[in-house]
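Translate sequence into structure tokens.
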Amino acid sequence: MLLVALAAWALRRELAGLDAGSLVAALRGYTVQHVVVGLAATAGSFALLGVIELMALRYAGRPDIPRATGMITGFVANALSQAIGVALLTGAAVRIRAYRSHGANASDVARISAFVTLTVTLGLLATGAVAFLASSAPLSLWHLTLPVRAVGAMLAGVVLAYLGWSAAGHRATIGRGAWRIVKPRPALALAQTALASLDWIVTGSLLYLVLPPAAAVGYATSLRVYLVAQTLGTLSHVPGGAGVFELLVLALLAPVVAAPLRAGIVASLVVFRVLYYVLPLVGACIVTGIAELRAARRPEVVHAR
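Result follows.
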């Protein structure tokens, strides 16, 4: 609650002087085409997250769980995690509820949730490494200039270390018994990195597509701003990074966007939040409600493994 209050205070200061009429005019400038493209990007992102969920099921030794169940559970888990925060715990709670009728236990769900979280993090690191290494243009946050090349090299080092670990060494597992973690094979590690990177590129592209053209923000700059804002917004543990994400995007774009265009940037953040957070959350709540109603009408059957 303290972080939410601080984020709201800082965002209010950042928006001081913003004309409400200009914001409304900017929002009215979005067309049906913007909505369709935005919905397509959102659907593409959640489809990729669904494929990652299926990979996690296979990795955890539960390929017997139907693909449709995995895709739907992946959608609900990620939509709720993005809105509520603390993705590892929120996603695990959803998966326990969804997979227990298929005989999944706590260790299965822990492995699935950890795999998904690790995969998404790998994609963030890999995409960030490429975005920061590809351009030496400075990225400033208030009075701090980020060392883009150094940050990119560090991120790339972490990803390469993971890929190297998956290919090297003779020890195939970590831990004991039901809580044993199996080291992914190189092909799986590469697939994790590639799919998750594509997901981050898709969502970063969504923000770029809704930015006002007059702001003339390049794609590379937009992607780097998105990755930094999402990372810090997630680390803040504020639900959905609300306020933190918007504050950071505004601050990072301040050096390259003229003050009169700030209303357009704020409008684009509102549109992005609705398309990628609000609508999936509403959809997840509807899917969950239907599933709970169906479950209440029939006796629960747990399949033995």
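Note: The two ends are 43 Å apart (CA to CA).
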